[in-house]
UniProtKB/TrEMBL annotation:
It holds the Pfam family adh_short. This is Short chain dehydrogenase atnD. InterPro entries: NAD(P)-bd_dom_sf, SDR_fam. Keywords: Oxidoreductase. One of its GO terms (molecular function) is oxidoreductase activity. The keyword Oxidoreductase applies.
Amino acid sequence: MALSVKDFFNTQLFLKIPQPTTSFASKTVIITGANSGLGKEAVKHIVTLGATKVILACRSLSKGNEAKFALQRFLKCSPDALEVWELDLESPASVKEFAARANKLDRLDVLINNAGIQTLNFSVVYGTERAVAVNVIGTFLLACLIVPKLMETSARLGVDTHLTFVGSALFNAAKYPRNHGDDIFTYLSEKKNVDMMNQYNLSKLFQILSVIQLASIVDPLTSTKASASNRLIINTLDPCFCKTGLAREISGVLRPVFTLFEFLFARTAEEGSRLVVQTASAGGETHGGYMRSGELKTYPPLITSEGGVRRRKYIWELLEKTLEVSANTDIPLFSLWSEQLSLGEEHDRFETALPTP
Ligand SMILES: NC(=O)c1ccc[n+]([C@@H]2O[C@H](COP(=O)([O-])OP(=O)(O)OC[C@H]3O[C@@H](n4cnc5c(N)ncnc54)[C@H](OP(=O)(O)O)[C@@H]3O)[C@@H](O)[C@H]2O)c1
């Protein structure tokens, strides 16, 4: 579903967002960017819903610990319920170290890829513009390194596990550059090719395309070890427009305009976090799917058209290469999965069954 003004007003002003109720009892959950905004609020719900352990993955340990103490005071939970682990998505070494540590956990039930940036300042990380680097490359490096642990937990304990990406409906508004040559990530490493007002939206478009492709590779429908109660569910959502620190870099004349817009329309971070938690505990019908306003949505033609499918495969191929080469991942990610987890053939949901919302 594409964005419309009516949909925006409804979601921001009228929609009733229910409290999440699905139990997280005995689960171990990682939330990236959990020291502020939606991530921090999601921690509150997940602990309240019974999780044994929630790991706050933060790029600053001091900010993470500050958030942990505030959460502990609020939740009155056991000190063992929350841990702060360092994670900087801009650093492949940090991501790999984090993933290695996560892979040693007794179990890992949920990874919520929530950390993200929206910036108007151009800089280059992983050989591309920084919003794409953090929201796509760093995020998928982590996700791909952790997929085997989520699948192993699922298979060993016979439970559903979740890999959830906090996306944005703004993917609908992305302008996809024309004539970007063979490598769009490299193309975006040159300032003259980048429109910073478009970069966040473009990064969220790349992200949603990659979620769909990842879900089609790691598909519970074709994994030989999967059954109805034993699967990794990969999904994404739009948490709606919420008042958080995300737009902190907006300055100058745009700042008062944004502040007014936020005052009129933004939901609280707590409300947005309910949608995050709902998606991170949703059923198998959401695998490869996109949730908005608490519902599974059909994808717009931007995604499902012939051009959309072509771009998805192109972005994924490039991402795979970047993860293995530029990010210097010494493990061959995808062959490792297929060997260890006996994955089936790639299963393209647009060529077979799409979820019916
Ligand atoms: N707020 C909205 O209206 C809205 C709408 C749609 C989607 N979203 C998405 O929601 C997610 C959460 O954002 P938010 O609104 O809660 O904003 P936020 O308060 O700014 O939270 C973003 C979190 O990501 C962390 N982060 C940024 N770069 C990182 C890196 N390189 N490595 C590790 N962590 C990093 C931040 O850490 P620091 O505190 O250290 O900077 C912060 O904890 C984002 O993916 C965003 O795109 C938000």
